Records
---
Amino acid sequence: MTHNPLPVERRFTHDLSSRVTAGHQVRDVMWAVIAALVPGLLALIWQSGPGVLVQCSLAVASALIGESMALKLRSRPARPSLNDLSAMVTAILLGLSVPGLAPWWVITLGTLFAILLGKQVYGGLGCNPFNPAMVGYAILLVSFPQEMTHWPAEPVGLGETLHAIFGEMDSHRPDALAMATPLDASRTPPAMGHSTATPGGLVPASHSDSWVNLGYLLGGLWLLRRKLIDGRISAGVLAGLTACALGFYLEDSSRYPSPAFHLFSGATMLAAFFIATDPVSAATTPRGRWIYAAGIGVLIYVIRTWGGYPDGVAFAVLLMNLTAPTLDHFTRPRAYGHPR
Amino acid sequence: MTTLPGRFPGGLELEGHKSLANQCPIRFAGLPPRLLFPLRQRNGENARALVSIGDLVRRGSVIAGGNQSLDPPIHASSSGRVIAIEDHGMAHPAGISSRCIIIETDGLDESIAALPALDTTHCSPESLLDRLHEAGIVGLGGAGFPTAAKLLKGKTAIDTLILNGAECEPYIACDDRLLRERANEVLQGAALLQRCLGCRTTLIAVEGDMRLAWQALKAAQSAGDFDFIQIIQVPSRYPAGGERQLIQLLTGREVPSGALPAAIGVICQNVATVAAIYRAAAHGEILDSRIVTVTGAGVQTPQNLEVRLGTPIGFLIEQCGGYTGQAHGLIVGGPMMGYTVNSDAIPVTKPVNAILVTGAGSPATIPDPQPCIRCGACAEACPASLLPQQLYWHTHAQQLQRALDYHLLDCIECGCCDAVCPSHIPLVHEFRQAKQASLSQQRARDSAAHARMRFEARQARKEQEQRDRELAAQRRKASLGGHASPKIQEALERARQKRAKQNESLASETTHNDP
Ligand code: SF4
Ligand code: SF4
């Protein structure tokens, strides 16, 4: 019988790259998040002028520069980190949160704080215990309360906007700087409660706020549909807030605004779909996430209603960030084959 | 699909890629010029080679035997001459090599006489177990656990026998083809096992999208007398065919952590194993070949081959028309649970169910790992309800104990977490290594304990000897008067030696009794 000759051995490299991927890529998720912010952004422009665009651009530029610098200092390659777009998301969230006419150095400083103190000092993406954008926001709020709490009540033209942002300090400001920022608490002194709680509570006080919130809600629902954010977190935040608001509203509707008011004012929707859902600083277990999110909702209400700070969302998120590791520890799911 | 008693959390709906290989019938791969038989056993020791270089062997000859192991003997899978016994790469997740018996085939394929057939309707369970060991039957689903040992393990009564035909891993189609072509053998084997195990329920599970296999089983069922067997379709959701997940689906029960399915009265056997059991019993056939799916974008003509054990992978690829231009990576098993090997000279062994040659860029070549963003996607996908991100955190920081606290050992290495991780962290790779590390720690602890026991036994023996000597001295003193006869002296001496021996064998037993 004839024999086949011995086959020539072919060698292969051991590599882990021949695996199945069934999930999303970080970069794609971040792109989607940015895209989902667009409706809210448009509503903001429509309601208060192009200032927010300028703020976002400034933020993105500072974030990219800050991140590259930090990575250089830590002697890490810049490309992969910049590529994941997480810095850009942080920047845009911050850009959306500061008042549209705040001077340029506010957002620049804030973004650098967010990237450097909120993220890079801990070792970069994934290691930061706090939501970087909220770290930046909180620092700004504490350091520049004046600049951070004034928001144009009605749309301001581009020229005026640029002048306000880049003009000399103490130059005259447009008159319409009277409103609270989106993240600003609608702290409700009784007087305000009276003026806002319209019958049925469906039309909240600030018209512009509710349009912007609707925009974020839309983008958020799209992210949910694409399974890019955890619906438990969004639902938890909204449920926590609604439960508190409803309780007090039913108790005394003349003093406390309706749940609808709370849901569609301030940064509620931004928090529920874009900020609390940041996985890095959230709890990771399913039950942990419910608790984490509901906690944020409740804290937003508490800070808005009785807090000393004018802002609800940033501090609520930061406080719950603190609890995440503990929540994770105590809400570990029961593993297969372990007693119930 | 009927509703099942249970369901498992997590898991993934994966693209099957089965039609690459499952379209044409199983084909005999032919005799390769050389066959290689790794001697490495499951306990890490080598089996004793029973042949030497130059010996002529025939198909079915026992060429190596168990060495303190449950593993059955190793048989030559064709006739030829032993040309070498040397180290060679083998199919193993850790990429190790093993001493191998290398046989140059003579192409005549002469066999030794087959084992006598057993009467499958009346043979005793013991005779079946002996036969399974003798015929070299081990689990063919990928784990390679000796079947006789697995069936023997059940101390609790077995009430449910599950035949696993739910081939959930992408690309692999050997059980699919087997069921389509040899459903009768599988059912015969099931009947035999059910009788010998004395269990009430026998279930065969196939995946929902293995429609033709299901039909073949149904046809074989109505042709024969197999009404007591339930043929069940399970959802095509990976890893429905994982032993623990399948048991959960079919019985609603969970196998306790660290225990075997037998602990809850269940025995799970792969369908190919059951067919091999039947052939070993009814025809005296030795397990010297298996069906291997050779597939992937890197192979010209993917298909299922009937392969003699010991055949080098490269020979199989040749039988499939060779590599394509884009051949890139070589995986033993499927893309989820398989492992890469670095050479196609590695021989097929019993647990090798598939050879997957990936094409460059498919499955998508994965970029370098990025930091974990704690997204929780991995935990959501984990069928064992573990927290892979926490496990990774601890294994990566070399905190083995913490990882064990997070149930590292309950990880079934299914790869779901890997597949969904947006940062492309090689989680399972990490977990496998950590499990290995924990295993060797355990071994080290065990052997330290053995050493201590040995030492203590020796100490005890010495003390005993000392006491005996003193006793003897006292006796001698007492017998100075000449009372004790030499016979008594002799008996005393014998008793002393016997005791010493007993102590010794006790000590050696504790050393060799590696579980
Ligand atoms: S899927 Fe990857 S990135 Fe997400 S939590 Fe798990 S390990 Fe981290
Ligand atoms: S490989 Fe382990 S940790 Fe990952 S999903 Fe499977 S069982 Fe869970």
---
Amino acid sequence: MSGGGLRRIALTALLIALVVRPSWFAWAFAPFAPTGGPVIYERASLLSLSLNHLGLVVLASTAATAVAVTLAILVTRPAGAAFLPLSRTITNIGQTFPPVAVLALAVPALGFGSGPTLVALFLYGLLPIFENAITGLTTLPPATMEAARGIGLNGWQRLNRVELPLALPVILTGIRLSVVIALGTATIGSTVAAKTLGEVIIAGLLTNNTAYVLQGGLIVGLFAVLIYDAMIRLETYLTQRVTGGAAGR
Amino acid sequence: MIEIDQISKVYDGKAAVDAVSMTVETGTITVIVGTSGSGKTTLLRMINRLEEPTSGEVRINGVVTTSMPGHILRRRIGYAIQGHGLFPHHTVGRNIGAVPQLLGWSKEKTRARVDELLDLFSMDPAQFRDRYPAELSGGQQQRVGVARALASRPDLLLMDEPFGALDPIIRARAQTDLRRIQRTLGSTIMLVTHDMEEAIHLGDRVAVMDGGQLVQHGTPAEIIQNPATAFVADMVGGVDRPLRLLSLIAVADIVEDGPATGTPIAAEASLRDALSACLWSGRDALPVTRGDAIIGRVTLPAIRAQAQATA
Ligand SMILES: Nc1ncnc2c1ncn2[C@@H]1O[C@H](COP(=O)(O)OP(=O)(O)OP(=O)(O)O)[C@@H](O)[C@H]1O
Ligand SMILES: [Mg+2]
């Protein structure tokens, strides 16, 4: 097995152990805990926090992908072309808006809990996907598009058989960026009482317990690294299936 | 029969195609020649409505092309695009089979047709069928592009510089193949080129475009003998004109009785080949054969008579 494969398995095993059996690592975190204070976070199970955290990310990213790709398709059709500059502007404004501000604004409307976090993750996830989908759909080889029309594909067939498959690698990159951003942003969600891994980190910060901070940080970090890696491999696989590897050349 | 009726395309106030009218008979090859930017591609694209004309109309067998949706029209018309335009994410086989698949052919029938076409263009199906366009040479990509246009055996074929990227040997073979395919299937072909040699070799009719206008439309011989404008005369190449004319006439047309010695020439060869053989071997007459039999001779003075301007 390759070195990358071994490292991946080792990291996955470490992550699972950290989440399911945190007490195994008490010896490692003890030096960072305040004297006499708790070493391992026990107010909520790390497993349920992790599942909740991932659940929010998956839900928000799926919705963001659906909306962003649909919008990108609409504004790249001849009928929607007039909206392309406007949608680009909105995208850019959205990107400069900090996630904390979105959270703060969403609380009055949605109350505390997962609601505002989901909204923030969704809004924040839209941007990279939309941007990449637009890039992918507007930089298709002109001769190929001309041929697609020339042989008699209608608009729908061109989209499904030519445009989306050729834009897929770029769109997938946008989704990957968006997911990784969401994994990080979801930790901030615990400031408005969403049940995410951020809870562990914040508890550590409030009680001056570095052991908690390390625990929460390590788990979120490992999730991000492993998911990023898994998505790169999924992209390579899908790209090869759709393009026969020709697009990567 | 294709009737192009006063068709124009104006871009930004400038006419790329300017009131062009011509009639293309069924079962013939019409070659459109002209310099770069003269509107050849635009004219071709208005026939299958990739471009909507600013004014004028096109009728195919009496039916106005705007009477059906553009994509339905285009499925019936083969189109080989300038610069191939293959789908990079589909194999050679899927590229060639694209139109048959759209038309609902069975998998077996499509596959058989793909192999047949690859064979026709001297590409081994077993070797090339499952490759991706990126794995082909430029000339191979272009041949696959032409094969895709031919796949559903359309009655009408539009080809935009289909042989541009081919080396002279493959090019000559592709031209001969196209001629043969066209003769057997009786298809109507409109082909764009900026190579007058190709136009004369392939065309039943040659249409010369200059600055968006159709300046002359006629048989290759007419174009060479009576160029309508100085531009056309220039295109048919001043000094080469007698040789081009000779290349259009078969030895069989002027064969006469009489003695001749040395290596014979085939009756189907052109007078240009015969002249070349005379000069090369220092003879004034060549025996002419049809099959194995000698049917007469062709003489230098007779060839010379054919090469003169019919003023
Ligand atoms: N979409 C367009 N918008 C504006 N002008 C165009 C457009 N398409 C073509 N033209 C112009 O129309 C003229 C004719 O172009 P066309 O592509 O028909 O030339 P062509 O004879 O095919 O040339 P080539 O031999 O270089 O392919 C050119 O001056 C070109 O710049
Ligand atoms: Mg052109």
